[in-house]
Amino acid sequence: MISRRHLAEVIGERTLQVHDSKKLAKAVAAYLLDTHDTDDLESLIRDIMEYRAQHGVVEAVAVSAHDLSNDAIRDLEAILKKEHPRAKSVHIISRKDPSVVGGVRLQMANEQLDLTIKDRLDEFKRLTASIKE
Description:
alpha+beta
């Protein structure tokens, strides 16, 4: 049995030119089903995304209440390119989540950028609470 980290490196290396995350997820899921390691899927995908990011392919899931416009996706890509200047390519997958009242949350392998209204309100609450003390 090979380690999850090693498997992620092998898959990451072989998929540096793959930009279809659904195709990648299906291949990884098939392997995990075959080896009876389906509990590791989420962790493995994160490890693969981390490997790919280290090699210039930055991927993120943009979670928002509504479909994102092409302009919004381009703006998010610009933010990620600024945060990851060595990135050769940036890919954003949009996902709807009605619990996100407004704004967007970018989820990457080992980091998250929360630009949601809820996060801004929570930050405001923390700041005003510290002023009262």
